[in-house]
Amino acid sequence: MGDYINNNVDWVLDTLGLSGFGIVLITLPLAVIQGSLGIFPFSTLIFLHISALGLVNGMLMSWLVSIVSSIVVYACCRYWFADWFERRMQRYTGRYSKWKRYFEEYGVWTIIVLRTIPIVPNNVISFLASVSGVKPGPYAISSLVGNLSHIGMFSIISSSILFPENDIGPLIAAYAAFCLILIGWFLMLKLRGRSRSEGT
């Protein structure tokens, strides 16, 4: 399976005259499309990066591409498409209203948790952040942290397929610890906010 994927990636790069980090010329535009429309999983791009660049460089490039994509989508929605997105989300009021409330209440921590635990599509996270009053600076910071954990999870999956001989135990342990810390922090903020509201 890994050899088949590697051969196909090499064929694409050779056909387009790209090598190594040149794959970003393909994956960056695809990441913006994915971040806007969500028509394919971002894990596909992580898979391509790791296959073409190796585990460490592939993770790093996936992280950088995901940050650029999330910021571009956030900016476009915040400054150009906010009204359109609000109308679209009226169809899914019950599904996404609670997350929008969390965005407004907890801000960047909600973004980090949702990037870490992929239960809401990436494009929807960027859209919700843009219409929920999250400022550009905090959003950029949350994308740095949240996308790193997101990339880490899918890199573990990808590397286990592409490089089965590598020991991914340390990666799994680091990712699990990171997730537990983030979830614990988020729950603490939620409980603190609830206690404040009950005290007023």
Automatic annotation (TrEMBL):
Source species of the chain: Cohnella fermenti
Q: Which InterPro entries does the record match to this protein?
A: TMEM64 (IPR015414), VTT_dom (IPR032816)
Cell location:
Cell membrane
Signal sequence interval, chain numbering: none
> What is the top-level taxon of the source organism?
Bacteria
Q: Which family does it belong to?
A: Belongs to the TVP38/TMEM64 family.
Output the Pfam families linked to this UniProt entry. Answer: VTT_dom (PF09335)
Instruction: Tell me, in one coarse class, where this protein mainly resides.
Output: membrane
Keyword Cell membrane assigned to the entry: answer is yes
Give Gene Ontology CC terms.
plasma membrane
- Official protein name in the record: TVP38/TMEM64 family membrane protein
Q: What are the VTT domain coordinates in residue numbering?
A: 40-156
Q: Write down the membrane topology.
A: Multi-pass membrane protein
Give TM segment ranges. Answer: 20-48, 60-81, 106-129, 168-188
**What keywords sit in the KW lines?**
Cell membrane, Membrane, Transmembrane, Transmembrane helix
